[in-house]
Design goal:
8-stranded mixed sheet, binds coenzyme A, 8 helices, Aminopeptidase, single chain, alpha+beta
Length: 199
Amino acid sequence: MPEKYPVQKRAEPVEDGSVIVHRHLDYEEAELVVELIRNETTITGYSIGEWMSKRDVVVCADAMTGALLGVALVHHLLPGWSEIAVVLVLPKWRGHGIGARLVKHAAEYIESLRRKAILFYCQDSMERIVLRLGFDTYADDVAFARKSWPRLLFLKVIYPLQWRAESYRRQEIRRKMETLHCHFQFKIAVPAHIQRLES
Ligand SMILES: CC(C)(COP(=O)(O)OP(=O)(O)OC[C@H]1O[C@@H](n2cnc3c(N)ncnc32)[C@H](O)[C@@H]1OP(=O)(O)O)[C@@H](O)C(=O)NCCC(=O)NCCS
């Protein structure tokens, strides 16, 4: 994790016996998460190395054992945007509010860095989560960038350059389009306060 995001070990206990903590994944956890994502049609990939050291990672873990229940990856991008790039809850723990808690925590964390959170999604369940959390949602990038040159420049030029910089992602998106027939028509969600940070 880059030094300018000094968040290791910050833990937030929650009432159901799980904790939210900022830490990287160990090899076994990273391998599991990458394998689960490889089979999901609604989400794109980050490499084992990114989960283990390169990106900012938020973990929901069992408070007693530390076992991984769910995870989010925050990808800090220029200029001032931070993408909640992956939200994944282990299959047996879905439907317990962990996904919502990870999104809420990641968005608050990004806001605390005075950065702008953005989340791309193509899943109804994620749409209900972000709407319940009070995010603004947009049907596509055109709707998001309407009347805003900075947003258009970010989405059409700066974001793709940064996102595709990692060869793992380029390979994975190609593989998923060919073998899983994914289309990746993403909608966009941003916290409602974001316009304050953009002006
Ligand atoms: C999308 C995903 C992260 C959601 O995680 P989750 O932990 O199941 O999400 P939540 O539990 O917060 O919400 C899911 C549902 O459970 C419900 N729920 C939450 N807590 C609950 C509880 N204690 N009891 C019963 N239901 C509950 C929510 O209301 C929600 O219902 P809805 O879909 O009808 O609105 C998870 O399904 C996942 O990992 N999917 C695969 C990866 C993926 O597609 N990620 C999203 C990419 S954008």
